[in-house]
Design brief:
Strand order of the largest sheet: 1-2-6-3-4-5
Oligomer: single chain
CATH topology of the largest domain: Helix Hairpins
Number of strands: 6
Helix content: 55-70%
Radius of gyration: 36 Å
Shape: elongated
Number of helices: 5
CATH architecture of the largest domain: Orthogonal Bundle
Strand content: 5-15%
CATH class of the largest domain: Mainly Alpha
Structural class: alpha+beta
Number of domains: 2
Amino acid sequence: MLACASLVFGTAAEGHADPKPSETRLKKQLAGLQKKVDRLITDYNAKRVALAKAKDAEKAARDRLARAQTDYDAAQRAIRQFAGARYQTSDATLLPDLNSAMVVFQLEQEQAAMITRFAEVRTERQQAADAARVLAAQLTSQAAAVKGQREDAEDLIDEIKDKLDQLVPVAPGKRAGGSWAPELPSGSDNITPRTALMRTEVRDHFPLGFPVGCYRAEDSGEHPLGRACDFMMSSGGSMPSPAMKALGDSVAAWAIKNGPKLGVMYVIWQQRIYNLGHPGWRPMADRGGITANHYDHVHISMY
């Protein structure tokens, strides 16, 4: 997509791949991208406000047109009724007790007033239709502009996410063939260096609102090995809120995307498991509870 992205990052020379940018360069690029996306979001938000006002104006124009059409229809009916009454009274012999000249004069006055009124409502109807048509076209144009602005902002945000992910380091112990050397747990939290790095990166990337549990003395799994962490999305034992469920989705997706660099073996979330050696989410058997089925936390196991 974005032209601005190509301006910032440039393109690789034909036949040569760009060297991996340094952390300093990446952070500088991110700062420039952040300024661009902030301006883009500001403009997008202003267009959203203008679009909301345009929708109100377009609705008011349609309401005005509906009222004008109602008045126009009423005026048409009145003229037809008047024409019928005029025809019935056109023979003065039908009105023996009235001065026929006065009756004719009165009818002519009423007719003139009615025709004038009809012309007015017809003009109003036409003006209302024209205004509604113009505002509808403007609304369509503004809606398209807002949609385009949103897509540009989303693309730029994706660029930023990609650059942020480039800052994720390769964990220690990765062998040339892609396998991972075993590690001993260390430190007061009894986890391996790779696990500690993964936990730090998740904390840096996401606004976690609940505790993270890693080492546990169990009979199986990676927790007793210091190679797994649980990122809680609720206080435990309760289903997460929609916002925390979305956060858990993001954490799981991020761990899968960056797992090859960090040494992630598998991710469990919402009674599903994603093994990076066999890509794709797979359902898990019901273990009998919210926590046991990983509905309240994202589990990440490391090599």
